[in-house]
Amino acid sequence: MQNRTSMVYIMTNMEEINEVVAFYRDMNGILTVMGSYPTYGRGTGTREVSTATPNDGIDPLASQGSLTLSRDGRFLFAVNAGSNSISSFIITDSGGLVLADVKPSGGAQPNSLDVYADLLYVSNVGNGANNFASDITGFRIEDNGRLTLIPGSAHSLSTINAQPARVVFTPDGSKIVVSEFTTNRLSVFHVNRNGTLTGPIMNNSNGMGPFGSCFLSSGLLLVTEVSSSALSSYSLSDNGLLHVISGSIQNGQKTACWVTTTRNERFAYTTNTLSGTISTYRIDNGGALTLLGNIASTPEGTPTGLPIDAGVSKDGRNFYTLNGNQGTVSVFTIMDDGSLVRLQVAASTPVPYFGSQGLAVL
Fold it and tell me: How far apart are alpha carbons 165 and 212 in whole angstroms?
């Protein structure tokens, strides 16, 4: 299904009433706020879901993929980490959202989602005080957007407090990879025909603090590393073992957390939160990475935006990133050489706020 309207969505992650804010995207990529839609769940506000990350109100869910689209663009899914639930929305032709379902996430403090066909998996950070372990849980997506828990789909990660930062399907949907922030592992699961999983096959991350990840259509996996602000690329074997292609290519910035690619998959972008910058990497035909440069998320002389979640428009023309300390979205034009030219910083509210999380580009 092809929606007529181009949109960008962010999530407020507010403690009392979590909401998704919808921006209309015009033909030049410029954003205008269209409205906000309650998830009927709660966020965490500025509270961090883990004791392993700084309690500074920036990136409280410590994850990539807390707001995720179905691959056909029909549905939008959001985590409610404060009420241990996930929400699904139907996307209308005008880009508006209609709530379809709210379901328990199968664990505590859900923070990342990914979808393949009618299969959705969510990662739960867990809660040690309440004896909830780090895990992932699967759901079937019905035609009306409602979610059905898959019996036997809940699966523990490599340790009880592994702290998942990203759950992502391979391009063919045969496997799931979970980056584990506190164990420095990339856990791979085989997806069974009934939607359950087998695994994990544990792989050591090339660098410390694996966080954001994304797959190219070729099956190449990109993973950010927070500790050294770096990006690594891997190939994935059928047996679930990862093989390093480019290991820990540093960008000279602080805390590379999220990663996304251009539509032609020639360039990758990481958002370096504590530096307030975005890095551009070239991806060669073999998957090797080369750092090309960095650009600030917000203009010089204005309040510094600290970028977190990011995405690229379907037409490949624009890059968007959520500034987690403002609730704003920085808009860039993508040039042919992969470089970014800033167009706009769009505000979701009149007053900046901390705690927002998640971005999805339709």
Answer: 7
